[in-house]
């Protein structure tokens, strides 16, 4: 076996092809449904064990109570009122049906003429009945019939639609996705009332059976992107998918890059805007975040509020984000390079101030920077993990106390504290890139301490080359910076009425998003006033 084959086998875990997840691998080895109700119930008890939340409600109905049925459901995941009003009451109150007259010849007869529920599916496979039961549906089994009905009675506690915590805005919609799968799909339907909106459902996770939905607009999204995403999701064979971030690591292009090639959002309006540009969304049951592909580097510097405020101010704030991103990565490395290798580039007055501040400091500039950066990262992590009222106090008070104590003790100089503080605040402006900022900052610090300005230049060149070759689902990660019509919404945001076509790098066949409108000039109202006079 070659080295490449051994490495591939080690990374994948096995050279054997896993079973197709869409065909429910749990079907293998499951018993077939029989006409005996008692045997079918025994099969369910064998697979479900003695779980207390699994309820078996046996009852009889018909003219002489000759029909014996059983309802199976999970306590806490169903609506008791729906079971009573839509299933039990219609069946028990019907005194006309009789087995002697063959009023019920199949489960379809009950499905079509007796039950009041709007979502009822007849299943002949044990595995699909079990899947429905574990998903919160109610299973109806009838003695003498090797079939079962999956009746939708799902009703569990869920978080209401609230303002998202990670993408707050001053102006714009305040709705955010929740952990409920059907709530998230309905939020997308509310905003995209198009007959071309497609929602493809699949189940991933052998143990969790997590519902996943691919959302896109046919004709707007490129078919090859949808096909690639569908194939990558079909190849995910794992025990559990507990959050959308699990899928992100499986479907991204460059697994070892510091830049994420899959974006996420917690706001339905942002997700709808991305889908209208040609992207494909991924809704995961149990996650309040929606993934979108392909991802572009420019998306990290765009916010929802950019499109709800005036374009001039939106353009200024976007340019400020680019500047903040550069400051958060290069401010500390530049300080290290200047104070260590290029003192002649510092003005004399500033050089004297820095020298007096660092007088008596026992560590070199790199060690000072590492102490402050690591201290800041520890405080930031502590602020995130502690309860919010306590976390904010720890972050603010801890930073002030530790910074002042470090300067007073002579461990670090005041200029270094100021520089690290500026980089920390600047990094908060681009929260989606905070992980890449932290890693690149440390790499640039090491290069600056070894090679000075030349090391920073080499590091910057390496990052630019990596960004140039990075792709997301076949789309260049930095494709938006190439001179094209995408420049209308890259470094600045032009008025909405000037953005006639969708982004060139990701749009499908339907490129035009607006036609036949020009801004008002005010002359119409002036002419109307003259006519009135």
Class per helix and strand makeup: alpha+beta
Beta strands, count: 12
**Strand order, sheet with most strands:** 1-2-4-5-3
Q: What do the pLDDT scores average to?
A: 83
First-residue to last-residue Cα separation: 93 Å
Poorly predicted runs: 1-27
Q: What is the helix content? A: 40-55%
Biggest sheet character: 5 strands, antiparallel
Determine Rg (CA atoms, Å).
31 Å
Instruction: Compute the number of helices.
Output: 17
Shape: elongated
Order of helices and strands: HHEEHHEHEEHEEHHEHEEHHHHHHHEEH
Strand content: 5-15%
Quick rundown:
By secondary structure, the protein is α+β, with helices and mostly antiparallel strands.
Structural account:
There is one protein chain. Helices cover 44% and strands 11% of the residues. The chain is α+β, with helices and mostly antiparallel strands and 533 residues long. The longest helix has 30 residues, at 311-340. The model is unreliable at 1-27 (pLDDT under 50). It starts with a helix and ends with a helix. The protein has helices at residues 3-12, 37-48, 80-92, 107-113, 126-134, 181-191, 223-234, 244-251, 268-277, 311-340, 348-357, 365-385, 388-408, 414-427, 434-451, 453-469, 523-532; strands at 54-61, 67-74, 120-123, 138-142, 148-151, 197-204, 210-217, 263-265, 280-284, 290-293, 471-472, 475-476. A hairpin with a 5-residue loop joins strand 4 and strand 5. The chain has a five-stranded antiparallel β-sheet, sandwiched between helices. Strands 6-7-9-10-8 form a five-stranded antiparallel β-sheet, sandwiched between helices.
